[in-house]
Design a protein that fits this description.
The protein is an all-alpha fold. The protein is built from 14 helices and no strands. Helices cover 79% and strands 0% of the residues. Helix 3 crosses helix 10, helix 6 runs antiparallel to helix 8 and helix 7 crosses helix 8.
């Protein structure tokens, strides 16, 4: 039984984007399927996702924050500067209506996505740096996300910065902290690795439930306004995500990072915690129900694009300008070193 669950978990982790898309399509045809995923239930599900992240983190992962302060500083600055600025620019270029604008701005102001660590591993990036960036952006999110939303979306709607701070604290920091504590206490227990092996699959299922809940919420609007609304929103999400990858790589190049770290910062900046954005949109922008649509599309698309980009990086089918420093490091076998 346990082996079957482990195989299922690995399959879900490997096919996360397709599973999420399948759930979205099924929910569109059967909109009442995930109608229960709203409000507190949605928040609890996101908390479970963050708990699964915490269960895989060790004290060594947090030591990276102290051991590589320059790398983490560059990564955090890129994360919380590039994506909000790009989102703000796209909102005005595409002339988005207020509800959709709130959604894409919220995605831009959230921390990096938890699956970015897997993508960094797949593309032979600097996994330690990826974990460090995810930890740093998650820890900074309770302060940075409300602050950035106030700056970018304050003119659209009144932002409850204090409420958003507390909500992010509850659904991200506390579950991650509990997961880390359990990992620290039970890491030597012979059954604990088995529990950890089930976490990726559980995380994918929870994220699919959140997306299903969003589709149930916006179903009537999608039906009423047709394919144009979806395609227009997807175009914005695509541009936001793609520019994040490109500008993340550029930030790494300007910082003199080697190829492995440039791949990692590109993925970390481009992939956002869209699940958190979805929950925040449903909680704080309930008067603008379409705000969750860009968040839901981002949940699925970031997984797809991240997998594609990681594959292209790994096979060498995508090349970006390489600095002289990175070229020397590559020749001396210096990839992945701080």
């Amino acid at each position: 039984m346990i082996q079957s669950l482990q195989q299922l978990s690995r399959w879900l982790a490997s096919h996360a984007s397709f599973f999420i898309i399948a759930i979205a399509l099924v929910t569109f045809l059967l909109p009442d399927l995930f109608v229960w995923v709203r409000g507190t239930t949605q928040t609890v599900i996101l908390g479970i996702i963050m708990l699964t992240m915490g269960l895989t983190l060790t004290t060594n992962d947090f030591r990276i924050l102290a051991r590589r302060p320059f790398d983490i500083l560059i990564g955090a600055c890129a994360q919380f500067f590039i994506m909000p600025c790009v989102a703000y620019l796209l909102v005005h270029v595409f002339r988005l209506e207020p509800s959709l604008a709130l959604g894409i701005l919220l995605v831009g102001c959230c921390p990096g996505g938890v699956s970015s660590n897997i993508m960094s591993y797949l593309c032979k990036g600097d996994v330690a740096f990826s974990v460090g960036m995810t930890c740093a952006s998650t820890l900074l999110a309770p302060v940075m996300t409300p602050l950035l939303m106030q700056l970018t979306a304050g003119a659209i709607i009144e932002i409850d910065a204090i409420g958003m701070f507390l909500n992010i604290l509850i659904v991200t920091i506390i579950p991650v902290g509990i997961g880390c504590f359990l990992n620290y206490v039970y890491s030597n227990n012979k059954h604990f690795p088995t529990l950890q092996s089930l976490m990726p699959g559980l995380s994918v299922v929870c994220l699919a439930c959140i997306v299903g809940g969003v589709i149930s919420t916006v179903h009537d609007d999608l039906v009423a306004r047709g394919l144009i609304l979806f395609l227009w929103t997807f175009a914005v999400v695509f541009c936001h995500n793609s520019l994040g990858y490109l500008l993340g790589w550029t930030a790494g190049r300007l910082a003199g990072f080697n190829t492995a770290k440039k791949r990692t910062i590109s993925i970390e900046v481009g992939m956002q915690n869209a699940g958190l954005a979805t929950v925040l949109a449903g909680t704080f922008f309930a008067s603008q129900p379409l705000a969750v649509l860009p968040c839901a599309i981002s949940c699925a698309w970031h997984s797809i694009s991240g997998t594609i980009l990681a594959g292209l990086f790994r096979t060498g089918k995508i090349t970006m300008p390489v600095s002289k420093r990175s070229r020397k490091q590559a020749q001396s076998g210096g990839y992945g070193q701080s």
